[in-house]
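Renewal narrative, Specific Aim 1. Our central claim is that a sequence can be written position by position from structural information alone. The example that follows is taken directly from our test logs and has not been curated for this report. It begins with the structure tokens describing the chain, in the order in which they were read.
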């Protein structure tokens, strides 16, 4: 069921916004095209599918073996790791760039995961994040008439209960936790980038750097 939903979310108007988030983060990560890029919560590999960068030194990490199997079938030459976002199986300061797209809302112990990302990132590295603006007016309205209808018609379940169980962090909570360890350099709201308000957009992308990094003028 979850696998079906993950792919379905990349269709229709919902998919248009989801893909736009991936493309924005892909633009920011172009400078890391030949460096080590880790995606925490890689899922089925939607970022690899919709991005334009080839990421030759990409590492995909997910806790779900079945998701990694799907990703491996789709992208057979990528390095994939079944691992815990709260205990990354990587050395300190070994990663140039970390991506986590539409994942932080699911992490019950997000501060621990952010601490681990901070640990494995190089001091000059960056964390790129895609966040659904859950709790915003347009996001909640859109979900009521897309995902909710799809899931309840197809599976006869209480969609609101599932969302309550799986989505632990709102966009404002994620932002607060991220800023504890990372400095935000750039933000992009989707679809109305010219109107930076959470209530009239559905996705926010963040480009961040560890707070302990040297303050370089070229950082962003």
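The sequence written for that structure reads:
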């Amino acid at each position: 069921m979850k696998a079906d939903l993950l792919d379905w979310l990349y269709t229709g108007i919902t998919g248009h916004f989801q893909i736009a988030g991936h493309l924005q983060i892909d633009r920011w990560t172009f400078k890391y095209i030949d460096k080590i890029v880790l995606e925490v919560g890689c899922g089925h590999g939607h970022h690899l599918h919709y991005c334009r960068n080839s990421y030759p030194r990409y590492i995909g990490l997910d806790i779900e073996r079945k998701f990694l199997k799907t990703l491996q079938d789709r992208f057979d030459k990528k390095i994939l790791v079944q691992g815990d976002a709260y205990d990354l199986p990587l050395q300190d300061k070994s990663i140039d760039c970390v991506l986590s797209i539409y994942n932080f809302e699911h992490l019950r112990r997000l501060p621990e995961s952010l601490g681990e990302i901070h640990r494995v990132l190089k001091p000059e590295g960056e964390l790129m994040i895609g966040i659904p603006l859950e709790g915003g007016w347009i996001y909640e309205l859109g979900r009521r008439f897309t995902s909710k209808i799809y899931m309840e018609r197809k599976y006869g379940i209480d969609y609101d209960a599932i969302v309550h169980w799986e989505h632990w962090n709102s966009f404002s909570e994620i932002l607060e936790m991220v800023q504890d360890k990372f400095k935000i350099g750039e933000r992009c709201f989707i679809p109305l980038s010219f109107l930076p308000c959470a209530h009239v957009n559905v996705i926010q992308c963040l480009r961040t750097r560890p707070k302990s990094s040297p303050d370089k003028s070229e950082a962003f």
